[in-house]
Amino acid sequence: MAISDPSVIREHLEVVGSDGGHVGTVDGVEGQRVRLTKSDPASGGTHHYLHLDVVDRVDGDRVVLTRTAAEARDEWGVKSVG
Fold first, then answer.
1. For the chain, what is the HEC assignment?
2. 6-15 pLDDT tens trace
């Protein structure tokens, strides 16, 4: 199930997989995608994007995904899609 209110996803929140593994840091929300900062060490210097469908919830200062960290990295995109 995707998050019902994406407005709770704020800049600088940590993004973690369902296994608790670090995926990245929120840079912002663009349409139906979460943009991750390119300055996060996990990013390799590139903005990455995750579809809102993979966001389970915001838990404190963390965005928790419905995928493990490895699965999320396999699925992230490098361009914003409409």
1. CCCCCHHHCCCCCEEECCCCCEEEEEEEEECCEEEECCCCHHHCCCCEEEEHHHEEEEECCEEEECCCHHHHHHHCECCCCC
2. 889 999 999 9
Q: Domain coordinates of the chain in residue numbers?
A: 1-7+24-82
Q: What type of residue sits at position 19?
A: D
Per-chain mean pLDDT for the chain? 91
Q: List pLDDT tens digits, range 22-35.
A: 999 999 999 999 99
Q: Quick one: which of 54, 49, 53, 48 has its CA closest to 68?
A: 54
